[in-house]
Design brief:
about 80% helix; 4 helices; mainly alpha; about 100 residues
């Protein structure tokens, strides 16, 4: 989980550097919010919270249920941890800038 948080902080750092280069603080809110939204959407998709109408049953039958569940939860938690620093940066830039 530390790796995912550092990836999220790295994304925030790149966004801050970009905002400093173009000298526009509104970019922090827009890009950090977009990165957080994409990350949370990927977390929802990987946890199967948003699911299509037809499942791919062949993959599910080949895998044991416990392994599949752990992998889905792990991916969802990783994307959530990437999105949290971006969400925090977007909220802080909205409130203070």
């Amino acid at each position: 989980m530390k790796k995912a948080i550092f990836i999220g902080l790295g994304i925030v750092g790149v966004i801050l550097l970009f905002a400093l280069i173009i000298q526009d603080a509104d970019v922090i809110f827009a890009l950090s919010g977009l990165a957080a939204a994409v990350s949370f959407l990927l977390a929802a998709l990987s946890s199967r919270a948003i699911e299509g109408g037809e499942k791919n049953w062949t993959e599910e039958e080949m895998e044991r249920k416990g392994r599949r569940t752990r992998r889905r939860k792990g991916n969802a938690l990783m994307f959530t941890m990437i999105g949290l620093p971006n969400l925090l940066a977007a909220i802080l830039s909205y409130v203070f800038l």
